[in-house]
Amino acid sequence: MVSASKQHKKGRQPFDALGFLEIQGAARGIQALDAGCKTASINVLKANVACPDKYTILFTGSAEDVAAAYSAAAAAIGAGYYDGCQIGRVHPDLAHGLMGIFGHTGCERNAGWESAPKGESDTPKGSDAVGVLETLSIASGIKTADCALKAGYVVLKELHLGYALGGRSYWLITGDTAAVQAAMEAAADCGKELGRLGSYSLILQPGTQVS
């Protein structure tokens, strides 16, 4: 397993772009990792067997380096490629979630996303609604979560990426009803476009054990 060498501190945006690959088999996965690292300067956050017959690589860097490494890795393994995604201008809350930090909606968002309205706390008040979405792959779980966070002022509470789910993934967001609904619509559309959408639900006035 390869992991990040530097500890990330909560409240900072750790990278500009993200690449993720799901590959059939460990041998092809390691071959892809080698090709990507030889092609561009990237930071490999994780590279390991995620579930039976799946090897995953999560890496970050500049948009140019991520794109170059992703292309080289995918080309090296050919039919061994299962799924993947590239995300530019990664939403900060997704970056935190990938590092195991949840419930964070820091002001240090990327340019283009607003934090809390003036005079209000940067953390949404209460949990009027909960949104849950499941995808059929790990890559689509990451991509749809990013879409949801960019579409509505919501909090990412959970992110489960296939490692004990047979390759499926799911995430959970909270916030006010309008924001969660907008986020879920955007994420569902993204999942459908990718052809990897599983199930999803919008829960109004959730109980404390859910929210």
Into how many domains do the coordinates divide? 2
CATH superfamily of the largest domain: BMC (bacterial microcompartment) domain
What's the overall geometry? elongated
- The rounded Rg comes to 17 Å
Q: Please tally the β strands and state the result.
A: 9
Q: What about the largest sheet?
A: 5 strands, antiparallel
The secondary-structure class comes to alpha+beta
Binned strand content: 25-35%
Query: How many DSSP H or I helices?
Result: 5
The poorly predicted ranges are 1-12, 106-123
CATH architecture of the largest domain: 2-Layer Sandwich
Beginning-to-end CA distance, first to last residue: 33 Å
Question: Mean pLDDT, as a whole number?
Answer: 84
Description of the structure:
The protein is α+β, with helices and mostly antiparallel strands. The protein has 2 domains: 2-88, Alpha-Beta Plaits, CATH 3.30.70; 92-204, 2-Layer Sandwich (Alpha-Beta Plaits). The chain is 32% helix and 30% strand. The chain contains 5 helices and 9 strands, in the order ββαββαβαβαββαβ. The chain has a 5-stranded antiparallel beta sheet, sandwiched between helices. Strands 7-8-6-9 form a 4-stranded antiparallel beta sheet. A hairpin with a 7-residue loop joins strand 7 (155-161) and strand 8 (169-175). The longest helix is centred in the last third of the chain and has 18 residues, at 177-194. 44% of the residues are buried. Residues 1-12 and 106-123 have low confidence and may be disordered.
